[in-house]
Design a protein that fits this description.
Blueprint (H helix, E strand, L loop, with lengths): L5 E7 L6 H9 L6 E8 L5 H7 L5 E6 L4 H11 L4 E4 L5 E2 L3 H9 L6 E9 L7 E2 L10 H8 L14 E2 H7 L10 H12 L3 E12 L12 H19 L5 H18 L4 H14 L10 H10 L1 H10 L4
């Protein structure tokens, strides 16, 4: 009998520059039974050629017309045959022992989700910034959210997790009406369905930053509306389990971060987010920026200072 199989699910759209490195990191995994499913979501670049050149017996390439990342992820799930699921964006990278180390824990705790260390990188993985977090330990889901939201900016990108298929089936599909921050909505549901979040020291993944065209960098009104909906949904999911001061404080900070980032791109959403924050908790924060920005903020207020910041080319 074969051991547990891990399905690595990769949605791909115009990722020709990065998909090769991503796939190589999967092919170098030390866990023996892995299948890789890449769903090409109507790419117009050479992504399909890159994937095809790296063909392996355990690699399946599915082509579909462009329907968006969440639809591609749902297609991935439909083709998965594994006992455990590793989601992976087409530009991120996982360490060779990442899956093995997480599987060593999940084999003994089949109703849990495994988390990992992570680092942000801009050019090469060996220059990734690794900053330990308060959630880098075993936690029940609500404690995980409380700590992750302590500054209002928890990280939940797909590469972090390894998930038993029964939990994936239990939480249902990705929400295809969402674009920006769709992973936060999905993994909030998933973590709340788990008995515990198991941290796996040494299991490491890498989040690529600093390139144009990424979903996380979008500032369109439709993208910001998606992020607003995600924050609203996640707040509801978590507060339905624990409506405490620590949870309300965390989401008050999240709403303020959203407001500062979305202003002035969508001022109406930003103001609505600030109202939500005020209703949740009295904690207040200011937008981030350099010395000139903070001086301008003191003189003319954060909204005008933010307009000047955006006009100068800062996102």
């Amino acid at each position: 009998m074969r051991g547990p199989r891990v399905s690595v699910l990769i949605p791909c759209y115009n990722a020709e520059k990065y998909i090769g490195e991503t796939l190589e990191s999967v092919f170098h995994q030390t866990w023996p039974d892995i299948e890789v499913i890449v769903v090409n979501d109507g790419s117009t670049d050479s992504s399909v050629d890159v994937v095809s050149r790296l063909g392996r017996p355990n690699l399946k390439l599915i082509n579909q017309t462009n329907r968006g990342q969440t639809a591609a992820l749902n297609t991935c799930i439909a083709y998965a045959s594994g006992d455990f699921i590793q989601y992976l964006d087409a530009d991120d990278v996982i360490n060779p022992r990442k899956i093995e180390l997480q599987m060593s824990r999940l084999m003994q705790h089949p109703n849990c989700v495994a988390s990992a260390e992570w680092g942000r990188f801009y050019d090469t993985v060996d220059r990734a910034e690794i900053n330990p977090e308060a959630v880098w330990r075993d936690l029940n889901p609500i404690d995980w959210f409380a700590l992750s939201l302590a500054n209002g900016l928890g990280m939940m990108f797909p590469a972090l997790w390894l998930i038993p298929i029964r939990l994936v089936q239990a939480v249902g599909p990705w929400n295809e009406t969402l674009t920006l921050a769709n992973d936060a909505e999905y993994f909030t549901r998933l973590l709340l369905a788990a008995e515990q979040v198991l941290f796996c020291p040494g299991a490491r993944c890498y989040y690529r930053s600093g390139f144009s065209g990424s979903l996380s960098g979008r500032k369109s009104v439709s993208a910001l509306e998606s992020q607003y909906r995600v924050t609203h949904l996640c707040e509801g999911y978590v507060r339905s389990r624990e409506d405490s001061e620590r949870i309300r404080r965390g989401f008050a900070l999240s709403w303020q971060h959203f407001a500062h980032a979305s202003f002035p791109y969508c001022s109406e959403l930003a103001e609505r987010a600030l109202i939500r924050a005020q209703r949740l908790h009295p904690i207040r924060i200011r937008p981030e920026g350099g010395r000139a920005f903070h001086l301008a903020m003191r003189l003319i207020g954060w909204r005008l200072a933010r307009r000047l910041q955006v006009a100068s080319g800062r996102p």
